[in-house]
Design a protein that fits this description.
Radius of gyration: 13 Å
Structural class: alpha+beta
Number of strands: 6
Distance between the termini: 16 Å
Helix content: 10-25%
Strand order of the largest sheet: 1-6-2-3-4-5
Order of helices and strands: HEEHEEEHE
Number of helices: 3
C-alpha cells in the first residue's frame, strides 16, 4: 500500500473532531483550483449520476486533484482520482463538495 499523503492524514485527524480543522476551505469540486489536492466530503445524493460518480471513485473521503480543463469553455475538467484521470462536466462536479488541504508546498501530487 502507498503511504498516506499529508492530505489524507489531515482528513483522518478531522474525522475525530466535530468541526473541521481551522484553515480548511469548503467548496464545490467545480470551483476547485487546478493542481491542488482536495478531499471529497459529500456527493449530492440528489444527482441522477451520484451512484455512477461513486463507482468512478468520487466518494466521501477520496482524494482528488483537478488537473486540466478544456480551453475556452473550461468544460469538461479532468480530475485525478484513485490512480485514474476522469473527465467531468460542470453539472456533475457542482454536486461534489470538497475540502482543500494543500499539497505540502508545491510537490507533485500525482
Amino acid at each position: 500500500t502507498e503511504p498516506l499523503s499529508k492530505c489524507a492524514k489531515l482528513f483522518l485527524v478531522s474525522l475525530n473532531q466535530r468541526f473541521p480543522k481551522k484553515g480548511l476551505v469548503f467548496m464545490r469540486l467545480s470551483d476547485a483550483v487546478l493542481n491542488r489536492e482536495y478531499i471529497i466530503t459529500k456527493v449530492d445524493a440528489g444527482l441522477m449520476s451520484a451512484a455512477r460518480l461513486r463507482q468512478l471513485g468520487f466518494a466521501k473521503g477520496a482524494l482528488t486533484v483537478p488537473l486540466h480543463e478544456a480551453p475556452i469553455t473550461g468544460e469538461p475538467r479532468a480530475y485525478y482520482i484513485k490512480g485514474s484521470v476522469i473527465a467531468l462536466r460542470r453539472e456533475d462536479a457542482v454536486g461534489i463538495d470538497v475540502e482543500e488541504c494543500g499539497n505540502g508546498g508545491g510537490e507533485d501530487v500525482r
